[in-house]
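User: Please predict structures.

Assistant: First:
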Amino acid sequence: GKQLKGVLTFNDSAKSHTITITNDERSWEKYYAHILPSNVEQSFRISPLRGHLAPRGGASNACDASKPYSDSAHVTIEFI
């Protein structure tokens, strides 16, 4: 899988960030979110930590057509 790399800056006015993970594959995929802080004394809360993404473009939900499965997830990282 692809590993996302980037820098998020946290301060008094930006204590949390939300990123979007999108599946570009044609199959169901698991995702896991974790942070590698540059300072081991820093603490973060991540939500959700893991999940499943529908194939690229999303998928129909046979049980409830009003709730299709998404090919993306919003992950929130909060500095605590």
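Second:
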Amino acid sequence: YMLRRVVVSAAARGGALSRRSSPPPPLLRTLCAAPASEAAPAPHTALAPSVQAAGPASTSHEVLGLPPDASELDVKLAYYHLALAYRPDQSGRPDAAERFAEVGRAYSSIMGEPWDDAAGVPSAAPTPAEPALQPASHVPAFPRWVHRLSEYLERVPQRLDLWLMPSYSSVIYHHLRAGELAQALCTFEEMKVEGEVPSHAVYEMLIRGCTIAMRRVGQGEVPDHLTSNMLKVVMRLWKDMHEMERRPDYWTYNELIRAFGKAGAVPQALELFEHMCGNVRLLPEERAFNSMYEMCVLSGNYAAALQVFDEHEELRKSLWKPRYTPVSFSLLLAAVAREGDDLHKRIQQLPRVLALMDRHAVYPRAEACEKLLSACIATREIGLAAEVMSLIERVGQDVDPEIAARARRTIGEGEGGAARSLDEPAVEAKLERRRDSSSS
């Protein structure tokens, strides 16, 4: 601890370590990271301007807090730091939206990229799909002492890193755990400058960190500049991974699908998912399927969600047998019953979904049943409405009485019309016989 204090003081007097001509070794960088209680500046201070600096800036470099001769790497890392700090959906500052757009405009100007005003300030956060299933109450699976032992074992490698020479991979991991994506990307660049070849785990961690930093694009929305640039970073990491002959595994593909989904790139995600289904080494399981269901439903591509459902059913016939989860059923019910032009076609898949749910002893909650009834009434699917009402009575769900009464009236009218249509031939035959007898 004293050695760390001495090094921090020397760095404050002689300049930040990140201003050195060559990157510092990981051990020195770890020693110079002061404890959180001292409120020391984050690593790579020169590349991460303080978000507290305010006031109008005359140039794009000043907006990012950089000198005019800053390198491209400095510009990128400063942009990541400020954009993550000023995200309107996470920052509590009143001027967050304005500063977020200003940072994105300055970055686009420096990098020579076109600027789209629609990507400056993100619209309101998309309303997530309401869960169709009642979430289960939290029940601890293990005694408290097991959790304490697990936390202690997790701290062991962190303590060892303080005394042994930590690797770049370990430094990147701790930056990402602390939510310091800009610092993790800076360490990654240092790692390549030092001539070390990143491992597969490093690429996967960075792709996951960039995906977490993205903001999910809702139906009919345009991704903001941070989400678009994070997707570009993910694609560069993906390309670099192949150039370094690091073979991506199932988890890397799953993270890439999540990145495409959050950025609204549905066709690219579907193409990647199709490649996974055709490769025995990358066959998707429930996490990948849930990621696809979530992406399709939240982006309004309900028909694509049902195509994924068909693929899920096909794989269930093989030895792989990917499982269904309550999340899968919740998203499938949303894909079947959401309003849209093709609702008449999608609602026909409802019996398949309900049969699967019944087989897994999972039942929709009252709110989901009400939406299913409304969809059946809107499409005049009397048989499906009767099936949903039977499920409600069997499970004992407390649905809205008005919706239930309207569904019963619709079912009764449909059954009455069907009965009348069946009796019409008999009535016509009886009238014909009467006309024949009167004429004779």
